[in-house]
Design brief:
heterodimer; A: mainly alpha; ABC transporter involved in vitamin B12 uptake, BtuC; two-stranded antiparallel ribbon; 13 helices; 2 strands; globular; B: 596 residues; 6-stranded mixed beta sheet; 4-stranded antiparallel beta sheet; 22 helices; 54% helix; elongated
Amino acid sequence: MWLQQIEQLAVAGAINGSFYALLGVGFGLILGVTGRFHYAFALVFTFAAYVTSVMESAAGLPAPLAIIAGPIASAVLGVAVERLIYRPLAMFSGPLSLLTVFISSLGITIAGVNLITLAWSAGSRSLRLVPVVPLQAGDVTFTTLDLALVASAWILIAALAAILASTDLGRSIRAVRGNAVLARIMGIDPGRIYLVVFAIGSVLCGVAGILNGARFAVLPDMGDRPVVFAFVVAFLGGTRRSPIVIGFAGLFIGLVESLSGFFVSPQWTSLVVFSVLFGYLILHPMDLRLLRAGLAPSRARGR
Amino acid sequence: MDYWWDILNLVLIFSIFTISLNLLVGYAGQVSVAHAAFGAVGGYLAAFLSAKANWGFWAVLITGAAGAGAVGVIMSLPALRLSPEYLVLLTIAVSSIVLTIVGAVPQLGGAYGMVADKPADLWPLPGGQLLFPHQWVVPLIAFTAFTYLVCHRMGESAWGRVLRGIRDDEIATRALGCNVFASKVVVFGLTSAFAGLAGVLLYFYNQIASPSVYGLNVSLKIFAMTIFGGLGNFTGSILGAAVLQLLQPMLEKLVRLDPGQAFLIQLVIYGLGLVVLVRVRPQGLLPEGLSLWRRRPRAPAAMAPGPEAVPRITVPAAAAELSAIPAAERDSSVILKVRGLCRSFGGIHAVRDLDFDLQRGRIVALVGPNGAGKTTVFNLLTGALKPDRGSVELNGEDVRGLPPDRIARKGMVRSFQDVRLFGRMTAAENVMLGIHETAPEVWRWPSGTRGGENLVDLFLRPSETARVERETRARAMELLGMVGLAGVAEMPAGALSFGQQKLVSFARLLGTDADVLLLDEPASGIDARWVDDILRLVAFMRDSGKTVCIVEHSLHVVERLADTAIFMELGRITAQGTVRELTGDPRLAEVYFGTA
């Protein structure tokens, strides 16, 4: 009996974990390469779900087209935010740019989420991507939608890993992530790479948003909680590591959250997740020192 | 009327949040978006104790602040090593943990929170029960003023100077003998306690403690207020709280909207307002060093002298006066004894079985090709890196494995190849940061200092604090005068030329009063005109009894300065002797010095 319960929890955890992985990889790519603390990730997430939902129900687009429209819209939003707001602000505010970009991102999120509410009603919308059919494997049940989520998450993560590892674009992105100044000397334009990275990260975020909207509901505040998990996953995985590593961190978080439900009541599971993060921060000083040295190369000199 | 009193009261309560957060973010450079969560710790403690244990207002106020402070200390432990991006994350996690706990415990009212059963009662102070907004104004002004005074006193003292040093360059701050960990723990604990105080006040004012009152959104709002007000400026924090808190009522009055959508439109304008405000004034309304009513000496208008106007260093005069001991009678006993020092990174032996001595009043040069491990030796000696094996004896005491600040206090300090001044602090403050008046009593905490760096002195012995501060400043000015930079003492160090920065960094080292000075490429990166000045300065250090060890590539510099030289290759010492002996060695001449 309890074995079956654990199996079911593990499968649910793997599904949630794949979702967190997708978000964490997108956020980690943006933070690792551009150094922007992109809180508006939550807005991009919500925006994609709304666009797809509106395209599908109101505009009557066929589902595949609506599914494509969402991530495209989120990519446009992400790139626009970087190009029109973050970049000029960062150039203007110099050493304070991490904080000012964060505040600005916060403002964008507040304004954007409320604009969405104004435009497309505060109530819950539904989103139908694929026919939701329950599936049975042994003692465990899940749906076709869950299957679609896991598959699309890992296909996207693997594709990103492949792009980063073995294309010219990927090498350019890794070069900018390693050292933007040096990359510029090598003839890579970091500004352009930033835009590309925002586009990629936003697409991943948008796909996650659509899938989340389809699993639950499309709501203005649907991005609040997932974005915090994206931060946690990107952090645990390490923003400068391969997407696969970050992806596994997401899977791990999903499993921890879900399996802890076996021992504690559901409202405590997120506490378990944050305690894991907290414990990691205390117990892994060496990793963090390295991380920090990587993040602030100018400060690591002289050691 | 109560409407406006209400807004004023909220501005005051949020000012307590923003002022204390500014000490943490603006001075110490530690980003936190969990400030409202610490308010929750205080507020919920107050709610629980006054409802369940029937404690009075002042008792729960103090307990709430202390409880939040304790949680802040716990949070500081993982926060000690994190960069700002990750501090944002950690504090979001802390906020979530606190809110999850208070929202999930049934005794605390779950998602609905705890409603107060009695109003705040100031007894035994006059004022009695606070039932209406206008009754709250005076007490809240008093609490805000208290917060302002304490934070201002701490920020604008030697103690705050250490915080600003941590913000600008933590490694350099430690290298100057400041106990960075203690400062960080105290500043996290103290600012969290103030957040707890504000949280208790918010509970009594609203008569409810609920998760949404202290939610992440509120923390983010406090953070935005602080940044917008201006980092490192407490008056700005009050202004920031006022502007963002007034935005909503202003919009309500100014923009007549369909009531159904008014709230949403206001939030849209609020969000866009944040974006615009931070774009228009990224440094905030009142930047650091700017005051509404007086000009502080911290960041005066540029008065950069042209390169020709820079006075030459006055070392010879000073040397005649200060080095009382003739060279012949100078004590030349061994002050630093290094035996079997080893350190490897992965499989690479950066430093292997190093044995050498430094003698008092001598200059020793550490030479060798790039990658020989010279800077690593400095890092190992000063505690920036932990040696794998071996011993480092300073004045007969084993200092191996001690943290950098302890080693600096024991009398061995280093300079950095890339100088590492505190860019946003003035030249004088840079030097003052290295000057510590130590106290003999062990109980003086933290780390046995006297004056503003000691919190007990700072608040309880104001006259002594003022005296120490005056003496520290005088000593810093004297040292800056010695290196010929008295004229730029009040300039931000980041605005000085590289040569000037180097000289400031030497003045800073001399300020520590350490016996052993490790200079990493003292003459590199500056033009020939200045090299002579620097060489005279190093010679003066030796003449005044210091032991100097330099890492240097310029053979010219080594020949002119060093009494002896140590030659390193691939982490090992391969030759020791006088400079003449080393340059005369045909093998070394070929591998390093060049055959010329």
